[in-house]
Amino acid sequence: MSQPMTGAFRVGLAQMCTGRDVEKNLLAASALIREAARQGADYVQTPEITTLMEMDRARLFAAVRPQEGNAAIAHFGALARELGVWLHVGSMAILEANGKIANRSFLISPAGEIEARCDKIHMFDVQLPGGESYRESKNYAAGDRAVLAQLPWGTLGLTVCYDLRFPHLYRALAKAGADFLAIPSAFTRQTGEAHWHVLMRARAIENGCFVFAAAQTGKHESGRETYGHSLIVAPWGEIIADAGSDVGVVVADVRSADVVAARQRIPSLRHDRPFQVEAVHTSTLEAKAAS
């Protein structure tokens, strides 16, 4: 394990094909987390909806539990403590008092304590070509906070999946001090093939941050199909680990100094300027052309 404050550490990403049985999913996640720790990972991230992939509303609400007394959270806390790793549960479905579900990410310390939590901000309400449709807001409540958390090697910005498509969120996190951006995901195969790699690289490049993105992969029991390709991306945009399409683990060594170096080469975070958007109407253009 890396020693705190060295600025160098090993990241492990667990790529899963989560099903409908929470207990089986916990066992599968735990095996992958253990494997990442065996390979020397100091920080281990699992994908979005680690513990349950369910499209049916009745089945979903029958399976989810509140955060208080949640057996899965207790399990992950004990596992982080046993392995001595920073464990980032990409997200879990958490039942809220208002009757909706939070898509909640948990960062757990090596002491087994929850250090930070973040609810997915942007809801995946889309109609894709071919009839594939998602209405996440029907069952889930959107978060309203961008969250930063301190790791021994730098500052982590927490987000979840569809948040990836809102670049101003990552700009705000980077300007607030994020060195690393966490984007655990369950991208559809269709959107992943089109946009996954380019968007992850863009978020890294434009903010001079590392990106850590554990992903779901394959055909799930619920019928959903996800893209995989868990990624670790360097601040200059290089992909330094790609898990491909199989269930498993990828690890890579990360140096906080690379964040500093990238931002020195392209200091765009310091170059942001306020501006206004001016809408020029057709009549104005015609008048200018006539004159």
Key attributes of the depicted protein:
291 residues; alpha/beta; Nitrilase/N-carbamoyl-D-aminoacid amidohydrolase; 7-stranded mixed β-sheet; 6-stranded mixed β-sheet; 17 strands
Descriptive report:
The structure is a single chain. This protein has 291 residues and is an alpha/beta fold. It has one domain (8-290): Carbon-nitrogen hydrolase (Nitrilase/N-carbamoyl-D-aminoacid amidohydrolase). Helices cover 29% and strands 28% of the residues. The protein is built from 7 helices and 17 strands. It has helices at 22-38, 57-63, 71-83, 167-175, 189-207, 257-265, 282-290; strands at 8-15, 43-45, 86-95, 101-108, 114-119, 125-127, 133-135, 140-141, 147-151, 154-158, 180-182, 210-213, 217-219, 225-227, 231-233, 239-242, 248-255. The strands form 4 sheets. Strands 1, 2, 3, 4, 5, 8 and 17 form a 7-stranded mixed beta sheet that branches. Strand 13 and strand 14 (225-227) form a beta hairpin. Helix 1 (22-38) packs parallel to helix 3. The chain starts with 7 loop residues before the first strand and ends with a helix. Mean pLDDT is 93; it is low at 1-5.
Specify the CATH architecture. Answer: 4-Layer Sandwich
Count of discrete structural domains: 1
CATH top-level class: Alpha Beta
Order of helices and strands: EHEHHEEEEEEEEHEHEEEEEEHH
Q: Let me know the CATH homologous superfamily.
A: Carbon-nitrogen hydrolase
- Helix content estimate: 25-40%
CA(first)-CA(last) distance: 71 Å
Q: What is the total tally of β strands?
A: 17
Q: Outline the low-pLDDT stretches.
A: 1-5
Structural class call reads alpha/beta
